[in-house]
Amino acid sequence: MFWRKLIVVSVLLLSLLILFSISIRTKEASIPPIGSFLSPFTGFWQQSECPWNFRNDEIVGAATKEPIEIIFDDRLVPHVFANNNEDVAYAQGYLHAKYRLFQMDIAVRSASGNLSEILGEKTLQFDLETRRKGFGLGAENRLQAWQKSKDFALVEAYTKGVNAYIECLKPQQYPLEFKLLNYSPEPWTPLKTAYMVMAMSRTLCSKETDIASSNTLAKLGKDTFDLLFPEWNPKQSAIVPSDQSTFVIPKAGKTVVDSNAVGYYPYKSLQTPDEGIGSNNWAVAGSKTASGHPILCNDPHLDLSLPSIWFEAQYTTPEFSTYGVSIPGIPFNLIGFNEYVAWGSTNVSQDVLDWYKIRWTNEEKTAYYFDQKSVPVSYRVETIKVKGSADVVDSVKYTTWGPVVYSQADNSYKDLAMHWLALEEPMQNDLSTFFDLNRAKNYTEYEAAVRAYHSPAQNLVFASKSGDIALRVSGQLPLKRKEQGRFIEDGSVSSNRWQGFIPQLANPEIMNPPRGFVASANQHSTTPDYPYYYNGDFDDYRGRILVRSLTQMGGIKVEDMMQLQQNNHSIEAEEALPAMLMNLDRTGIDESWEARLGKLRKWNYSFDADIIEPILFDLWYTKIYDLTWDELNPGPDSIPLLKPESWRTIALLYEQPNSIFWDIQKTYKKEVASDIVLEAFRQANNQLDGLLKADKKLSWYKYRKSKINHIARIPAFSIDQIVNGGYKNALNAMKEKSGPSWRMVVELGPETNAYGIYPGGQSGNPGSRFYSNMVSDWEKGKYNKLVMTRDKDRLREKALLTILIKPAN
How many angstroms separate the Cα of 263 from the Cα of each of 220, 477, 492, 507? Predict the structure, then answer.
């Protein structure tokens, strides 16, 4: 009996040991080996962090030229002291890997189409689309340009720093996400840094509406299309006003023939960046500030994630000292300040991705017509590793324009080739732009740095202690004929190429303007009198409130700029609501809703966190918009169509209340604006009634449902609810998943007075108290003092720990 029990127990124990040592796969997920994951020696317990004990470290035998000292302050911000530029880059790579290794790995996998290697078949279509859109080619071309520059040594030093940290890791020290997904970190390469820039390009310059615009033009005709989709809002506040521009106008390029590829394209659209991804930056001259010194501000609006997209640090050499934020995976501070100047960026938002209709010469689609000749396609073979499945091999066709993303009848963008600036080789090492900004001392050095920049185009703002302020639209911008790139182009003729690039001397720039400030918020770069055509996705409201506010302000203090960054006022609501109320027939509404209407009339158009008025406005206006443009909703055939911009819809409410556009297609009645406004008001109030039944204390922040997701969408490592105000068209551009990812205010007096914060923490480890420790203060509108100093003793007073990195000899 004893032996029988012993055998049964032994079998059960052996079974458990085997079960705990293997990965379990289901249709939805892959579970890591439970034994190793739960092990106190190698599992997730290793991610716990003692909150009061940070151990100093000394690393000997590093691939550096000289010793490096890193002093961490009480927020885990590293202050790096090195004696040369390569060692600074090495230290930055080491720190990025130490605190953000999984973030770097998952971002590169997303940009290179390698997610399926760790996540399985559920990400295969995403990887296929990434490969088919040429991300690999783009990264290789960018790396090729970098390798021609002397500054490539800095990229190599950064890479060595990343790998120095990876090589010292034991499996029990892997970041938690590697253990959850049951894989190991791989060595870093300069190509991976190039993929990180491609990831930025996907977010910032892959927006396009070519198919939707072509379909809408075919559906409505040219006259109606032009009426509903003008490219310039007459109320727009351009970044560079026509009377304050400093650019030089070289001879314009020649005009080429119009495209003959107009028609219907009944395919679903590819994934594009979210609406409202943008940023604000500005600089005010000393003539407008209380101190008499310039103040520079920047708050880039991006997807909010944990860990944060940004990593904060100071880097100091005998030549320069710089403080700011970088993106793990990319060397140098992208936004920040040094002992002489400050700089920041917003997205230019011009369209640099166009689609071309390919006319095949054979059924196999192996050749295409180009200037009346048959040209063979080239192929790029993409091999995707898929966890738990066989490799997937895909041959992507390339034309003179770029990749043919799909050629099958049942796929998106059939027989269209993609021409995207991000796939082209830069004319020089554009990473040098940010290295040069980190050590710039004056306007001349700033301008030289930003002229080297390639893509994605950025509005780079500048201020200096000498009193200069400036803003330049930086990057290579396509030289196009009028409306080129709005619609599908005919790919069979070379005359439809871009005519090169807008000359650098003609890139819009503004310096020390009489109005005393420069400002950008993703609005149009210039007024329509600018001699070069460009198109894109431009903001219509944030730039206007920014320019209006700065124009009215004087005696500006740092605190005023902080408040402006968090301004919740919406010009969209300011202009739309009076038109909505003007067209509302009050005799047709329920008396129980009158109180709400009274609140709306008194509302100040500010999307504050704890009030209900923004909810009713948002519901009401959204329903007006949807009812009005019902004829442009995608039908069962899924033909993508454009809808007019918000400002155009509001203008119609004021100017054409009896227009045919108000008619609802599915009714027999010929509706006018008042009918739409009343019906939308009823629907909005009914929906609000239902929301209030579920939550009697409903307010704007609850309705907006802003959150900060973990980068791998792990709920336990995410924050489900952000309690603050803000709106997509306010300066405080909060949305469900995006918002101000870094707020910075820098006053450039004799002593730099700088503040900043981002919604996250320095560490990517969910077990660290520095994982999300700044979210609460960011949520409340608070800032951290940014201390840039060469005084090591001052830093050591509150230091958490120190790391010494020593070379091999």
Answer: 11, 27, 16, 34
How many residues in total does the chain contain? 809
DSSP classification of residue 256: -
| Cα separation, 183 vs 185, whole angstroms | 7
| Contacting residues for 534 by C-beta, under 8 A, at least 6 apart | 350, 351, 477, 478, 480, 502, 525
612-625 in b/e form (b: 16+ CB < 10 A) is bbbbbbbbbbebbb
Query: Distance (Å, rounded) from C-alpha 71 to C-alpha 791?
Result: 11
User: Which region holds residue 182: left if phi is over 0, alpha if psi is between -120 and 50, else beta?
Assistant: left
Residues 581/657, Cβ–Cβ less than 8 Å: no
Q: Quick one: which of 691, 688, 681, 685 has its CA closest to 624?
A: 681
pLDDT(702) > 70: yes
Show Cβ contacts of residue 458 under 8 Å, excluding neighbours closer than 6 positions.
345, 346, 347, 348, 474, 475
Judge whether residue 377 has pLDDT over 50.
Answer: yes
**pLDDT tens digits along 56-100:** 899 999 999 999 999 999 999 999 999 999 999 999 999 999 999
> Residues 281, 297: contact at Cβ < 8 Å?
yes
Share of the chain above pLDDT 90, in %: 81
Dist CA 367 CA 503 (whole Å)? 34
Two tokens at 382? 């993409």
Question: Per residue, what are the HEC states of 32-72?
Answer: CCHHHHHCCCCCHHHHCCCCCCCCCEEEEEECCCCCEEEEE
Largest CA distance in the chain: 100
Distance CA 78, CA 83 (A): 16
Tokens 């009346």 belong to residue: 372
Alpha-carbon distance of 299 to 278, in angstroms, equals 9
Instruction: Give backbone dihedrals phi and psi of 183, rounded to 5 degrees, phi first.
Output: -145, 170
* Mean pLDDT value across the chain: 90
Given pLDDT bands bounded at 50, 70 and 90, which one contains residue 537?
A: very high
Tokens 């021409």 belong to residue: 419
Q: Peptide bond before 644: cis, by omega within 30 degrees of 0?
A: no
CA 685 vs CA 121, 520, 592, 619, 620: distances in Å: 43, 37, 10, 8, 8
Q: Which residue in 238, 236, 734 sits closest to 519, CA to CA? A: 238
Give me the residue label for tokens 């930055």.
Answer: 92
Interatomic CA distance for residues 39 and 783, integer angstroms: 40
Q: Which of 210-219, 283-292, 730-739, 778-787 has the lowest mean pLDDT?
A: 210-219
- Could you count the other beta carbons within 10 Å of the beta carbon of residue 376? 11
Cβ within 8 Å of residue 369, ≥6 positions away: 359, 360, 361, 375, 492
Residue showing tokens 């029988």: 4
Token couple for 791: 């005084």
Cα(612)–Cα(336) distance, rounded to whole angstroms? 37
Would you call 337 helix, strand, or coil by DSSP? strand
* Contact yes or no for 508/530 (Cβ under 8 A): yes
Are 752 and 788 spatial neighbours (Cβ–Cβ below 8 Å)? yes
Nearest to 63 by CA among 93, 33, 37, 34: 93
Residue 115 Cα to chain centre, angstroms: 20
As a whole number of Å, the end-to-end CA separation of the chain is 68
Q: How far apart are CA 371 and CA 382, in angstroms?
A: 29
Give the helix ranges, DSSP H, for 695-786: 700-704, 775-779
d(CA 27, CA 29): 6
Write down the pLDDT at residue 667. Answer: 84
Query: Residue 413 corresponds to which tokens in the numbers above?
Result: 């963008």
